Every structure is written in C-alpha cells, then in structure tokens.
Amino acid sequence: MIISEKQLQDECAKVAEAEQDHSDAVINAMDDVLPPAYSDHVQHTEIASSCSTEFRPPSKPTNFLSLILKDKPIRGCYVIDPLMQIPLSLLPPPNAGETDQDRKNLYLCTKDGSIDADIWLIGQEDAAPKNSSRTSISLSSNNGSITAKINTVKVVAPFLLDIHTRDGRVTVLLPRSFHGSLFLTTRQSAKLSDDLLRRSTILSTVEHTRRYFVGDISHRLFGNDWNGDELKVVSLDGRIIIRYKDEAELPKIGFFSRIFSS
C-alpha cells in the first residue's frame, strides 16, 4: 500500500490532536483532586488561628473546701475562688486548734490513702489582686503519696501550699507565675527540674531541709516576713519532685544509677 505525503501529514495531525485531547482530560481530572492554592490555604489557616475561645476551669468554683477521709485515696479536680463568700453556717467546724480565720481555702486529708489533686485557683482581671491575704492550701496523708498540680486562671493572689506525708513520695507541679520560697524536708532526695532550678536561688541546707527562692529575690523581702507564694513540703521517708506543670517529667533513676551517682 502506497501512502502519499499529504495523507501521512493528515494522519500525523489526527494523532497529535488526539494526544492533546487526552492530555487536557488528564489535567482537568488532576485539578479536581488537587488541594487549593497555597495562598488560599494560608489565608484559611490565619483566620482559624485568629479565633480564640475563653479559658474556663473544668467546674464551678468553691471556697473553704474540706475533704477528710480515713482509709481511702483522694483524687479529683478542685476549683477554688478565694474571694467567694460562704456563710459560716454552711461550713463545717474548724479543725482542732484553728479558728474561722485560720480556715484553709482547700484542705485535703487522708490517713492511709494517696492524694492526687488537680487544683485550679481563680483570680481577677486586675493586675493586682484585691485580696490581701494568701490563698491557703493544705494536703496531708500519713502513709500515701501526694501529687498536686496548681493551675491559675487570670491574676491570682499569692498562695501557700503546705504538703505533709510520712512515707509517700511528693510531686508538685507549679505554675510559671510562682514567685516565692520553697521549703523541702525529707530524708530522701529532693529534686527540682532544670528549668525551675535555673530560676531558683538556694538559701540553705540544714539537716534534712533545703530552702530555695524562685524568681528575683532582690528588693522583694521586706523585714522578716514573706507574704508571696510559698511551698512547704515534708515527706520524712519519701522523695520530693518539684517542676513546672508544663515541663516534661523528670527521668526516673534506676537502682544502679542511684548507686553510682551517690
């Protein structure tokens, strides 16, 4: 069969046209499944990131809360508003040796159980809290470990956190706003996280008690009294671990590590 030059050109043109139609169809199909242009994606992300939600505690606040158990653990979330007024007629009698003025804003006590408390302190919008007194928190257990995490909402008043256990380990997670003294008493080890240690000034080590000051200590102490944040921990035979609540957990020390690091 003999094909003329004109027929060959016509056949080549038809093949080229068919290939172009196929390429256009493939491109159109890809456009249907490709993500939007980069500028559209960035604009959507910026709009989403600019939206904010109001930060709320997990439950309604209370004040002067006491929870005393005998042989059970205490675990829960406790939201404390130190400015909330509660009639004395609705409160239990003060603890032995205390008056109504000595009431703790939060008092958790168990004899033979552990304590795991997620504590929220409610503050105010003002830069300086109107409440001149410190928020007082007490956690105690004779034979159990204690874990306390302190969360703050808005600008909170200074707080005093007092923790006592005889045989259990104590772990405290502090907010970044903590500015004040640490009193740590134990016959075992007392560890501060690296970040917290960098912000602390060691004041003394006397027998089994270590004292630190977290934050700028200059021009802060007037006379012999300190009414700012304060953490007191006593665990006679348990380890003490203190870190910021947004820090990673401290690495656990194994048996051989304790031997060679001692």
Automatic annotation (TrEMBL):
InterPro entries: DUF7330 (IPR055754)
Alphabetized Pfam families for the sequence: DUF7330
DUF7330 domain mapped to chain residues: 63-247
Protein name, per record: DUF7330 domain-containing protein
Origin species: Suillus placidus
